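User: Fold this; tokens only.

Assistant: Input:
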Amino acid sequence: MIRHRPSGSGHPYSVDTEQRWPVVPEAGGSATLGVRADASVDGVTVEFERTADGGGAAETVELPLERVATTSRGRVTDGGHLASAQARLARAVGGWQVTSPELTSGAEYRYRFTARHEDGRLERTRWFEFRAAVWRPAADAIVTSGDSRVVLGSVRVFDDGARIHRVRFSLRLAEGERVTGFGERYDALDHTGTELDSVVFEQYKSQGAERKTYLPMPFAHVVGGSGWGFHVDTSRRVWFDLGAADPALIEVEAQTGPDGELTVRFFDGDPTAVLRGFLDGVGRAEELPDWVFRLWASGNEWNTQAEVMRQMDLHREHDIPVGSVVIEAWSDESTFTAFRDARYAVSEGGGPHRLADFDFPADGAWPDPKGMTDELHARDIKLHLWQIPLIKMRPHPAGQAAADASGAIREGVLIEEPSPGGGTRPYRNRGWWFPLALMPDLTDERAAAWWTEKRRYLVEEVGVDGFKTDGGEHAWGDELVYLDGRRGDEKNNTFPVAYAAAYGELLRSSGKAPVTFSRAGFTGSQAHGAFWAGDENSTWDAFRWSVNAGLSAAASGIVYWGWDIAGFSGDIPDAELYLRATAASVFMPIMQYHSEFNHHRTPSRDRTPWNIAVRTGDGQVIPVFRELVRLRERLVPYLAASAAETVRTDLPLMRPLFFDHPADPAALSGTSWMLGRHLLVAPVLEPGVRTWPVTLPAGEWIDVWTGDTVAGGRTVEVEAPLERIPVFATADAPAELLALFR
């Protein structure tokens, strides 16, 4: 076997051995051409042809490739983790690459590879073609609205003579101006002096260190001067240099359609006005019911009805209120529509089932899902079920999973990819989670309805209140083909938006509020449900990164947001981190704990307060957690009223201080935030401290715990015992709000 994929796997941050790089090379440079081959291949050459602009005879050279280590999808695939020495060898020797001759503008290039096997057999690929591109001026490539700040003469396009691939332009950055926004960002609020991009990506843990995100947006606030912002109005990938190369410039580069045209919208005013202008074009949140502000509870090992109810009983036993339970491991892990152990007849056409179609064995994992849901509702607890937007194909599907896969292909509801022989075939997931799975095109109304109808019985008959719409990041590759004919470069970022929207419509059409809980998103996600910060370890770094994520998401118009309290992965947090994280989460829009699957090994890694108490031996955990959740319950009316105001006015619910104090340089450097109109929250983000410095903006502030009035415009050292964090109220805060803290 010999394989070459010109565009690679589509991993946005890694180059695969078997691809061409750059995919669109620049004239005057060269291209790396690579293949992946079986271990039996002992030599590879490439025939490389150049045809000059205007035609004429092709110039051909034959180049030998050299062995390289094989990398794929961001991972080196040789190494000791593989199952056998033979597999390791195959990957270690399977990579081959060569650098092309210097490329010229206007020429057409084509190439094919020949592999020589140890037995003398030759194997050839098909021919592949490309053109080298040049950057040229193109003032008309940028269409603007608002007060344009595009630097005169800065617009250029990357043109290969047949089509335009990218556009570049510059914006002036004045002294003292700082750049923030860009969707959910973990490393910092202030991105001045850095580079970043906007592509939906599943970064499993360490998002702050990696500077990658599930929920990007090509939208920015520029604060510290007159106040303005901009939105690169595209769903394609955009790269930003925010004063890194030149402190006086913002440099923007974006993929384009073949016409090379790009729209950029500019907004003037304070941060709320800038955000309002952005949301006017992309959509804004709708109010969700008050119950979303109560505690959400979850654990990946709550995979039976008995365990779910045991955990809810423990909440009641410890007198800790809970408003929602999220069950992740509920399904057969094959269809993601049927409860594990349920017996039913396969719907051969892949059509939906009703509740009456299922028999739930008394000794099964879920003997009575409807009864369980009714009992949860009787306890005033809402139920959410986990979802994944894929048809699992490994191991080879059987039963209903096989019928669903066949039905999806027959009905034509799948995202597709180019096939080696021409035409298209169903796209197979290239990510490392559920590899080779099929992916329904949820951006298409018909396909989305086909998919969600399979889940309607869960809402209308079982009584489910919402869905955890996990894993919206699996569309990899600019060349993917969606049902409307558009390609992955334009559509992949929009997939998680459509995913949440499809489930929201299912809920709405069934008479329920459209409560979805997503980690992935893009421009337009503002209008679709709630979000959490994704997968993280239980570390103080992850805590700080998640605070940044929530504040930057809010600055970009996400209203309902939370995180996995104190992280969900790896060993448990210590008691201090757990309680500090819980105290901060009291003052975030969504308050929820969750834990990763640990194969039921002991000791348990559940993030329940009782497990943390047992594991750490700290007797403060349960009583402090209880009082913090009770405070949260008292704050629900304030949160609900504040969320309604946010939807009405666009003033973010959980907002960075620069919204209220855009001229204050300290407002972008800290991790405090305003919650609604009246509360300033300063989480404790370091271990081992019992006081915390809080920078208060100008004016008078009230310490909600003591009632003391404190003058602002300075940094004050505040008492921060383990059972509380610094919280201040504005001088005009209602007395009934202050009374909630005493």
